[in-house]
Amino acid sequence: MKRNWQRSAFIACVATGCYSQPAEDGDGSTTAATGSASTGPGAGTGDASGIDPSSDAETTIPAPTTTADPTGDPPTGCQSSADCDNPSLPLCIDGTCGNCGDAEDPDSACEELDTSAPICNGADCVQCTDATHCGGMTPACERSTGTCVSCQYHEQCPGSACDIFDGECLPTDQVWWVALSCPGGNAGIGSEQSPFCDIAEALAQIPPGGIGTVFVSGGGPNDEAIDVGGGRTIAFLGVDGPVFFWPSLVPDVPAVRVGDATVYLQEFHLEGRDSYAIEGVTGSRIGLDRCVIHQSSNADNVRLTNSQLIARNTAIGNAGLTQSMMPFAAIAANGSTLDLTYVTVMDNHGVGAPDGIVCDAATTGAMRNSIVFEDGPPPVDSIDCTGLSITHSATNQLEPGEGNVAIPIQFDYDMIDVTGDNYYGLSAGSALIPIVQGVAQWEAGDPVVDFDGDPRPLVPGTPDFPGADIP
Q1: pLDDT value, residue 53
Q2: In sequence order, what DSSP letters do the residues of 208-241 get, joined into one string?
């Protein structure tokens, strides 16, 4: 599996839509209209209409004839677009019903027909063909339907990021760049050409209540902790490969802490070391895309209190690495909301309680198309979260819900790839592959690629490989 970090390829897939809805056929009945003309003594001697031009008798001008479509569609003759009843031929063009592709000025023809669908796309009038036609609360273009929609992914917002919880693009004039490997101190101004050298400088540009996008390059590892609060909304997007981040071994310092704020992370590899990799406290909203959350030696990997989490194409594992006698979990949530899609949870080391996903009774949410596989002889109880709806997922024990399967074998490191960027992808020949193959079911709005850029099926209802990575 070759990682494809080309943001443009993903943008193209998301922006243009990767599946099509089937068009409906028209089924209207046909009636051919016929005109009649009065003929006088000179019938047959006049013009082509059959009317003697020398006659002084009152004449009837024949009505324009219409042509019945042999397929059974309504007549195609017209005087205005109001006469065109066939949805596939809605425009009156030179006396004949046609589509916008037949018009001399296709877009103008569409706008005249319906101002809410002013763009001609082939033969159809649509609202948009790309994001430049959209804005406001619906900034992204869903090409499969030709309509402007709320954004769901950062790639739908060129030049900034998507506020996924609200469906709006973040402003393009509140953007900063950080190059963690830049030499010579912090001389940059935060632009793409002259980036900051650490994230703290970018955070200093965004006041309480402020909004911003921070593009981060430079790989790592980096020991800077990220702490966001004060009602801010900030997206941190890795570019040119994953960003490796973990704080120094200082107790109670999470790699990322969010308090009363919204934080998005894409293409980040976080290690908690001696604390949480991610901690969300009251009022927090956290979105993870194509991330690895790993190796919180003395804590849960993700700890949430009265917070919201969206995680997609993300792997979470190795919690409690050095304190394996403690009940640490990959995700521990109290009074929170979880939305987990194509997530891999593996290789956590807590004992005495489930160590995959653990919640209190006030936590709710859904998990789809995911793998939760923990160490220990079967049956291992890896999930304790009664408010979590689980579908099309593979877990140690069979969970209630459509399309779920149980994993009847014991975890072994030979089953996974723990090298390089693709942490917790399944290794070639893994015994887990035939058990989980096809368990997931791709639906509209799901990620169009996996953790390292391999394409998903892109057809709603199609079986797919669960978890963050397609082996």
Answers
A1: 36
A2: TT-EEEEEEES---B---EEE-TT-EEEEEE-SS
